Amino acid sequence: MLLRIISILLIISFPVSANNIIVNGTRFIFPSNEKEITIQLNNTADRPAVAQVWLDKGDARETPDNISVPFIITPPISRVDGKSGQTLRIRLPNRNGLLSDREQLWWLNLLEIPPTPTSAQAHGNNVLQLAIRSRFKFIYRPTGLGNRDAAPELLVLSKQGEELAINNPTPFYITITRILHADNKPLLGKTVVASPLSTTRVTPIAAFKSGDHILINNVNDYGSTVSVNSQIK
Fold first, then answer.
1. What does each C-alpha distance from 82 to 22, 41, 127, 135, 181 come to in angstroms?
2. Same domain, yes or no: 21 and 68
3. Is the pLDDT of residue 121 over 70?
4. Which of 138, 180, 183, 188 is 20 to 30 Å from the Cα of 17, by its Cα?
C-alpha cells in the first residue's frame, strides 16, 4: 500500500503545492444493472502526480488496507502526467449481500501525492508538499426504486420537543444543505444527510413551531442545489 492514511510530505516550507487532480463529478451513482462505471481524473498541473483511490464505508479514519467493500477499483494507484488524465474503472463482481429496496452509501477517496522536487527545484528554496485527500459520495442504487428527483418532496419534517425530526420515507439518500423559514431565516447550522427509510433528528439554530412554512435546499444527482417547499408538522 502506497500510503495508509492521508499524510503531509514535508520538506520545510513555503510555497505550498495545491491539489491539481480534478475529479469529473461531485458524487457518483452505481446503478445495480451496471457491471461497472468509469470516473475521469484530470491533472491540471504541468507536473505529474500520483493518485491513490479507494472506497470507505463512512469512517474516514480507516486505512485502505483495513477496508472491505464489494467494489474493485482499477487502477487503485496511478501516475497522472501533467495536463493529462486517467480513467478509473469501478467494477462490482457480484451483488451478494447488497440491498435491493434502498440505496447504500460509501465514500470515494482520492489522495493526490505530488512528485518529490528535483534537487534543482529544492536548491535554495523551502518547499512544502501536501498529500491532499478528497472524499465524494458513492451510492449504489438498485433498479426499480422510483423517481429520485421527486424524493425531496416526500420528506416529512415535524417538531419533536426542541428537535426537528426529518423523516425520509423514500429509498434514496437526500443531502439537505439548508432549511429556511419563509422569511429566509436558516434553521440548520450544517448539512444533514437523510438516510433512506429512516428519521434523522437535528437541533435547529433558530426557533420554530409546527405549521411553519419552510424551504428545503437539497442536492440532486448532478451536484446541483434544488429547493422544495414544505411545512413543519
1. 12, 12, 19, 22, 47
2. yes
3. no
4. 138
